[in-house]
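haha ok so turns out i had the wrong file open the whole time. this is the CORRECT one, sorry everyone. sequence first:
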Amino acid sequence: MLKALTFVGLLLLIGCAATTGPVALPGPADIKITPAPASLPADLAAFSGTWEGTWTSPYGWLLSRLIVESVDTDSARVVYIWGDDPRGRFEGGWSRNRAKVSPGGVLEFGSSQIKFKFVMAKDKTSIEGEREQGGIIATVTMRKVGQ
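then structure:
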């Protein structure tokens, strides 16, 4: 009996360990990050690259990634990637967008239904994000990855 319980316990541990690695997110195969021009203000240039974080909202947690492929004084080309909804309401996906950038390190994109806004931290090591849809606001702190 003890051997059977030990075996079941090991199976449970192995199953748990298999699900605790990095989460794969969908995304396009043609990502190309162009370094920001040297003349660009530091609070905008810092956006260039890949950012990752987990949104918090009344509906749960959602892993996401923001890739800023290019940025200049007026706009940025971004890829926004999201994971599977933890409650199973939707699958992960991605979209490529033209974002508006503003002095002070602000990046915004979206539609009339869903709006995203990211603000660069003063130390340029993280960005604070808001996602607004139907009056409900989710928030995220993203950190730069892979660079």
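Helices lie at 2-18, 42-45.
again sry for the mixup
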